[in-house]
Amino acid sequence: MKKLSQRLDQYLALRRSMGFDLSFEERVLRKFVSFANDNGFQIISTQLFLDWKASYGSADNNTWSHRLGMVRQFAFWLAEHDDRTEVPSSQLVIGRYRRRVPYIYAPSQIVAIVDEAGRLPSPYGLRAALWQTLFGLIAVTGMRVNEALSLSRQDVDLDHAVLTLRNTKNGKDRQLPVNGDTAHRLAHYAKLRDRLVAHQSSAFFIKEDGEPAGDCGARYNFAQVSRNIGLRSPQAFNRHGDGPRIHDLRHTFAVYTILDWFRDGRDIEAEMYKLSTYLGHSEPKNTFWYIEAVPELMQLAAARAEKRVLEGAS
After folding, report:
1. For this structure, is 98 an active site residue?
2. Is Disulfide bond one of the keywords (predicted)?
3. In the chain, pLDDT over 70 holds for what percent of residues?
4. d(CA 122, CA 197)
5. Active site annotation includes 304
6. Which of 13, 87, 158, 286 has the most neighbouring CB atoms within 10 Å?
């Protein structure tokens, strides 16, 4: 049975092969594993973390929440190799900020969302076409909801099937190519929009009153669709309720893209930099985060890394 220190070496080597800068995280985890070895712990457990926290010195909850997140990531990976591993609960320490674990929609759920949006009632039928097209566009491009809503007519080049996103979250413009089916659906919406609404703004996505569709409307209609298909529980007073979010369509696009790369045997690190640019991330680490956030991706990455080690040793 390998020692925790040996498992940590494997874990750090795997994540470095994905492009992560681990200088700070390694220092924290080395101290954690050293404490475990010095105190007779052979596996990761909740008690190990609590004992380490009690003896490590004073720090605020934000610091300990960050350290807990590092230990949990290591434990999730280790659990695939040693079923005795206990992943400490994220509720052991509550910090100010914790990145939300993405909800990854099944393909059938995405189809259900788009289909149900097409049944939203309105006097002229534009509401259904608007939100069906918008939700579908986010699902197949991974763009942020506000990026999609900010598209002007000039930004949607249907002849060349290219969308131009301006003044994005990171202050940069970028272009997204779309496939022929997506361009066809955008054209269908635009044709219906222009036929039904006489006085319009310059926005590509507009409501039946001719005004631009907004973020609140997107989230309200997405919540209603989600309730209709059972992804959220019924709510009184038109409340949104809790459940998978519209932004999780973006996460789902990214995860399925990376999964396809693993299955195709592509160079993940090289492809991830392309995806980072496509998604408009400020730093590649925000894209590599998906590998850590989704267990299946982490397992695939670990399996590939171990295969390389075995091939190198043969």
Report:
1. no
2. no
3. 84
4. 13
5. no
6. 87
